[in-house]
Amino acid sequence: MNTSRFVVAMRRGGAQTFRRPQLLLAAYSPTVQCCLESTQAVPAARLPYRVKLSAGKHYAWCACGHSKKQPFCDGTHTKKAPSISPFRFTPEKDRTVLLCACKQTKNAPYCDGSHLKVIYQDVVKYLKGIFK
């Protein structure tokens, strides 16, 4: 912050807010780029979805990442990722769970913390771009 902005901020009682570093914004960006037709899952978000599930109800969890109704499937995979089908499941009891949004979980459809790996990869990619 330059000197004149600092002086103005101090006169206002230090009411200036500071922006987050761009590194954090890039790592936690909620938007994800996608391609026309993919054979691999695309992360829909960086953090899992907290969802209340009803016992006995049938759900289809989006495994491709292209659905507009995340974390559930809306049929978009038929055009954008025909080789990936949704994971269908029926919970045994009513409960609130974290459903995976990064699509890298080993315990589909539930989150197992794999999103930390996705976030780490985003940070590394961002840093490599800075230091090219």
Automatic annotation (TrEMBL):
TM regions (residue ranges): none
UniProt-listed InterPro entries: CISD (IPR052950), FeS-contain_CDGSH-typ (IPR018967), MitoNEET_CISD (IPR042216)
Keyword RNA-binding applies: no
Domain Iron-binding zinc finger CDGSH type: 46-83, 84-121
One term under GO cellular component: mitochondrion
Pfam families the record matches: zf-CDGSH (PF09360)
Protein name, per record: CDGSH iron sulfur domain 3
Lineage, broadest ranks: Eukaryota, Metazoa, Chordata, Craniata, Vertebrata
